[in-house]
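User
Here is a favour to ask of a fellow structure person. I am asking you to supply a protein in sequence and structure-token form. Please set it down just below, with no commentary around it:

Assistant
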Amino acid sequence: MVQQDFHGGFGHVESWVFDLDNTLYSGHCNLFPQIDRRMGEFIAQSFDLPIEEAQMLRKTYYFEHGTTLAGLVLRHGVSPHDFLDYVHDIDLSAVAPAPELASAIATLPGRKFVFTNASRRHAENVMACLGLDASFEDIFDIHALEYIYPKPAREAFERFVKAHGVAPREAAMFDDLPANLETAHAIGMTTVLVDCALTEHPQHQAVADWTELPAHVHHRTDALAPFLTDIGAALAGRERAA
């Protein structure tokens, strides 16, 4: 895929905000199918349901509430800690160190954050595998969103920018889900879709049919590390020429 011409498109950015799953690591790692399976198992065990019905309920709550967890908390009072501990108990061996990505993130001037609907613990575990432990100022996770305000809800983004004093018009959001970028765009962020067509997620599959970028997606890449390296080089070149 040809990457977008972003010359000059990031000169205003002071805060770099990254989703975690299927963004900081490739869909090749196949982590999300593990998480999906364990969500179904948790629901089946909690409500004594056949696994097929549990998976249907998982999908229903995801589409109605933004995350399966939000639906379970709002409708059933499920313990979010029990749920998150169970579903994130997965095999991370496929997540390899990403030194090129770490170097690319380091070249970006300004503040860097992870903003995820997953838990901080899961994010820290994945980032340790990637070698990104020291790459970010903070992780804003589902606990900070009180479990019921996940992305793409506007409330989630407003909580994030308020908590960290981020000016949306001076921020760039990197995410694999177009719906999340729609909200990011609405509050003034520059948006980058990290293309993840490898999964069966409906939003990932829909991207394959795009003939042009929608208004809420400013840039698109299927190779995050080179994309960030090019941004860092362009910004450094501009600074030297100033």
Observations:
- The first helix runs from residue 31 to 47.
- The longest strand covers residues 111-115.
- The chain has ten helices and six strands.
